[in-house]
Amino acid sequence: MGRQWGSAMRAAEQAGCVVSASRAGQPEAGPWSCSGVILSRSPGLVLCHGGIFAPFLRAGREVLTAAGAVFLPGDSCSDDLRLHVQWAPAAAGPLGGVERGRPGLCTPQC
Amino acid sequence: AGLEPSPPASYRRRLQQPPLPAELLLLLSCPAFWAHFARLFGDETAEQWRFASVAPDDEVPEDEEEDQLRLLGWFALLGVRLGQEEAEEERGPAVAVAPLGAVSKGAPLLVCGSPFGAFCPDIFLNTLSRGVLSNVAGPLLLTDARCLPGTEGGGVFTARPAGTLVALVAAPLCWKSREWVGLTLLCAAAPLLRAVRAALGRLFPSTAALAAHLPLEVGVPWGLPLREPGPPWAAAAVLVECGSVWGSGVAVAPRLVVTCRHVSPREAARVLVHSTPLKSVAVWGRVVFATQETCPYDIAVVSLEEDLEDVPIPVPAEHFHEGEAVSVVGFGVFGQACGPSVTSGILSAVVQVDGTPVMLQTTCAVHGGSSGGPLFSNRSGNLLGIVTSNTRDNSTGATYPHLNFSIPITVLQPALQHYSQTHDLGGLRELDRAAEPVRVVWRLQRPLAEAPRSKL
To answer: Which ipTM did the prediction report?
Structure first.
């Protein structure tokens, strides 16, 4: 990628993260996950897609299309919602992470 | 002397923190995004569109499909509980936000998302994809950067100023009438963050203070008129309406537009030509020439009753360089609902017959409605050709928007110039006498190396 992209790439990767949602006590349910953007690191603020919260809405998905619905407070979701965020550290270092199965993904030869 | 035993191999692709606990502060949507979404996707053609991770032929219950549409424009603000160590270490550059309208159509974009979300972060975390801003309808943006399921919510950044946040991914995959469109639906970041600020202020007093930590908008001050969409040459693309059929075209002289024969097939037919909607000028014209049905060059020429104002006349290219960066500008996908889309790629092939280019192929995303639109060189801005078609595999029915065909402008330019100067159609009529090898090429057959010799 051209020079113009070097700093843009670093900034994009520094701001990127992945968000996963699961149900407390039901590890087999979900997880639901998506990508996100780190808006602030202290305090930690992340903006991500709202689709992963649909299964947790107390009032059901219809609340998303209620006339004029522009925002819903965080307690619109059930108490068993568990959220985790992962991102790349600013500094390089040995790989962390635990070897996990790769459900549903494979690499067929072309 | 042997080297020190190396530490156990460990790939260093995606370094990551252990997952950090987070809490949902609020869910929010951008009303203007919905308004434009309804305008572009919500009319009678709504059932043709699919924005899902599942392929269009996978059966999805109707209510679930409606759910997916509902969810498209919703985003969430999370509070992440950082330990002391992460808080101190994680001091990366703060994100800056591009105001709505600050990034013009055709500008390069970088998308950073994690395909398949949390399934494989050590492999896919923060994967990059590159494209251009293809179209803009208020806060609803389109890019031809290719994204996969799981990248929803990922950030979309500009190259300059480095890493300025433009948008978030709303739907990574779009299908229309079962054709993969190859475009990604985005929601502009500036209006989203304004909605976050407004919501934080109205929620609990404790969260109002968080608004001070949200990134600020930089660049073109808010409120200036939206910048002229796209690179200067993109404005040469026009919408051509011929009865109930519409397609794209390109102005090659103030009163001369070239489009495809299958857009306006009949000579003497009246057509209406619209320049880019920001000018919303429509001019009547008449088809003065259309190639025969048997001609491999799918071309028609429209003479206008008055000049097209403010439409730049592109410079025709004289040479083609395979691999060069190119752009297609066409009204595919959205047609009259908003301005032309810009998609980027490279000139993937120049097919020649007897040393003369007779067909161009590109990797840009080309959709129904883009026929007749211009193909430009990004480097020179010169007009390279007229887009005529993309590719469908008849055995599977699959359409490939990223393999498409254009007529080199060098085939047309001499005849167009002659007609412009003399109003004599002789040069254009010559196109109907294209040689057999050219016909073979446009029938997508292998050009015969040489006529098979008789054995007698």
So the answer is: 0.86
